[in-house]
Amino acid sequence: MQQESIWDADTAQRYDTPGTGMFAPEVLGPAVDRLAQLAGGGKALEFAIGTGRVAVPLAGRGVSVTGIELSLPMVEQLRTKADEATIPVIVGDMATTIAPGEYAVVYLVYNTISNLLTQDEQVQCFHNAARHLAPGGRFVIELWVPELRKLPPGQTATVWQCEPGYIGLDTYDVLHQHVVSHHFRFDETQQARLFRSPHRYVWPAELDLMAQLAGFELETRHADWSGAEFAAESRSHVSVYRIPPAG
């Protein structure tokens, strides 16, 4: 599964779910609040900006936002909400593509760094963030914690969400640190719709080492955008890395 084929026109058309899921106010609001605070009046760069779920409300808060995005259909969907002058987007991959200018904050939300399927690409992504930041600038990553403790011997899949009309499960390749997320959506008919996406899962400690290789220091890590304590049972984290200030 290539990323270009996954994030196609059909996916882009179905991606936005206003008011629910990842677009729910209680999910989106704290993320926008925190990123606006971290930008501190400076410019923000979003890697894998997608359809603008975070960028559009962040720009609405007065933050100057630029994006990098691999999928043209996702950018086209974004353009139904904001024009190029409001939110400029450079088409390309987040590991190597350069956006013009210098930024106060670069951010990656909703597990997107795991869409890079090799450790080398993920390390490159940190270096790419660093080259866009001024001294003292921050790189923010939202990422889930791999749930390998749920895998008994010989089992390769976990169900991570089950609710009316939806089942989400992950299949793991622990040898190569890969996981495929399967999203099944269905109704009262006999038909179901499947969306799959491959990922390379990353432990927080490995992420911290990637950050060090690119010249970052870990500034904060919380369990969510609202600042809840990150603990052993946390299923995700928001990690803020900082380029040390000059001097």
Can you walk me through this structure?
The chain has helices at 3-6, 9-15, 25-39, 55-60, 72-78, 119-132, 204-213; strands at 44-47, 65-69, 89-91, 103-108, 133-144, 157-163, 166-173, 178-186, 192-200, 217-222, 236-242. The chain has 247 residues and is an alpha/beta fold. The longest helix is centred in the first third of the chain and has 15 residues, at 25-39.
Number of helices: 7
**Gap between N and C termini, in Å?**
46 Å
**Number of β-strand runs:** 11
Please tell me what the overall shape is.
globular
Helix content: 25-40%
Topology as a string of helices (H) and strands (E): HHHEHEHEEHEEEEEHEE
Calculate the mean pLDDT score and round it. 93
SSE-based structural type: alpha/beta
Strand order of the largest sheet: 3-2-1-4-5-11-10
How are the SSEs ordered, and which strands pair?
Elements: H1 3-6, H2 9-15, H3 25-39, E1 44-47, H4 55-60, E2 65-69, H5 72-78, E3 89-91, E4 103-108, H6 119-132, E5 133-144, E6 157-163, E7 166-173, E8 178-186, E9 192-200, H7 204-213, E10 217-222, E11 236-242
Parallel strand pairs: 1-2, 1-4, 2-3, 4-5
Antiparallel strand pairs: 5-11, 6-7, 7-8, 8-9, 10-11
Helix pairs in contact: 2-5
